[in-house]
Amino acid sequence: MPSLEHIANVIHVWLNNTFSPFWATLFEFVIVGTCIIGLFAMLGLVLIMMERKVSAWMQLRLGPNRVGPVGMFQTVADTLKLMVKEGMTPDGADKFLFNLAPFIAMIIAMVVMAPLMFAKNFQIWDINIGVLFFAAISSVSVIGILMAGWASNNKYSMLGAMRSGAQIVSYELSAGFAILSIVILTGSLRISDIVNSQADGWWIFKGHIPVWIAFVIFLIAVTAETNRAPFDLAEAESELTAGFHTEYSGMKFALFFLAEYVNIFVVCAVGATIFLGGWQPLHFGTGTKFNEIMDYIPSSLWFIGKTFFLIFVIMWFRWTFPRLRIDQLLNLEWKYLLPISMFNLLLVTLMAIMGWHF
Amino acid sequence: MTAAQIIFYILSAFILGTAILSVTTRKIFRSAIWLLFSLIGVAGLYFWLEVEFIAAVQIVVYVGGIVVLIIFSIFLTQQSGKEMAKASLVRTIASALAVVFGFAFTFLLIYDYGFEAGNKNFDWSVSKIGSQMMGTKEGGYALPFEVVSILLLAAMIGCIVIAMKSKPEEK
Amino acid sequence: MFITKYIKEVFGGVKSLLTGMKLTGWYALHHKKEKITQQYPDNKDTLVLPERFRGEVVMIHDEHNEHACTGCTACELACPNATIKIITKFDITPEGKKKKALDTFVYHLDLCTMCNLCIVACPTDAIKMANTFEHSVYDRSKLLKILNNPGSKIREGIE
Q1: Are residues C69 and C147 in the same domain?
Q2: Which chain B residues are closer than 8 Å to A153 by Cβ?
Q3: How far is B76 from chain A (nearest CA, A)?
């Protein structure tokens, strides 16, 4: 079976042999862009379907089961419905910013995908600041929400935007600390270096207790950063109608919805990359039969499998825990997660210096 | 003109255009958003120069930090959705003069001294950046700077503790 | 001490969260067996409703087309939102006495909240809650029901 790396190389060589380097690069841009947009659409359909099915299982319901076999085409039908719906702009809204906001949210979700490593040697941009790039761009995602909340000219939207702003700004810190602890162990911000450093064991195994703590903090913080339950105060249906996207309808609403799910995918992919070894297969010891069998599974499947496992965990959170109040939310961050992650960072540094990890 | 030059001019036009919009718009929130785009354009310029670390720090500090703070303070002010009054003629002329002088100053500097074409390779690894910042050799005074800022932080916390009202004794 | 309390709080919090996740995780794994959703229009033939399900108020008639309603209007008085209206008439008993009896038991299904108060109030157990629940009609006037069958009369010996 040809690997993704192989396919990419074949296309690259063919393009460079057929066209001049300038046109070859341009065509590669177009191909990558198309692939990313296709991946977006697929992720939207698959993740929304998965969310609805997982929530149904956890609540002992059936979930969508009418459109197509076991309801598989429900999300396709929903998308069609959203496409033909009218996208309204309220009269009192700041029309320019109102229409710009969903695209900002979408573009940011797209840009964060650049340094992700989808399979062995298969990456869009192996930037030397990989995880810092991720942290930087995801801190901008709050802008789309603030813009949407303000431009809607609606008190619910405004409150939702304020809440989500406070939430994202504060939880970014502990997410950053959790990522930093792995950066300390690896000594590099580059995603490919981080993945390669886990060839002899994932960090979650090699780094034992401090990395476990960092992993749990990372999961909590990214759940809050993507505005999902139990931290979905920005939307909070029972209090704020729908929060920052109250006034949005049709495809503009769909873009926000899609951006949310793509963000979940991205943060889970980053979590899988830095804690669970990215595309590295599961190995025990060296040279055993078990390792050989694991090596047969393609690297892209390992990456997707780990990412979807983390997505499942985050969905599990959503359908188990009740929503926090705003003061509880800020207490959790500033009184618990931040001190613990700072202390944990010191612990990780000590561990890296003394070589206590495996 | 090479592709890199075209990208440079597009980025510069983007930065200048959004900066001009940011100071001429009469809605305070839009002004903040234009400022944000301008800063993102500057980050894009850093990416174009292939100094990714600086670009990411630009985005974290300015876009993710300062502009969000500005937007928050706009949200908390009254009448942030209203159009502001037109600037008076004196102010318009004064600011135009300031722009002209600033432009003339920069232009003269560049005209007299020119740019030295850099031939240094920027492809520095992150560990190199880190040791450079922590080092005490030439250009490596980030660590003492941070120590001073921690001292300031300690002083600030001390001030807050002194100024804080003590809790009434529990009986 | 402060720090032990803090650590205890953190561990207690994590433990309680894990307890919740264990339950939902168990549900997610056993959803095939444990699921409670009824596939309603498909299982119409095999649908079994609980005995105490409240669908609508009906009057019990026996095989001789006789009911137990004396027309005492206790249910009408008990009803919180005027769902029941009882029209009475005067029967002449064989002894030549006048006796109050039920003429029409009018029941507005559209106003009823299935609160069961009328059934509790009835001294002779003449009415009960039925299991039927498919009440949708195209015209609201069809929801106005007369509960006593035409030509029915009160059973002997009920006062």
Answers
A1: yes
A2: 81
A3: 10
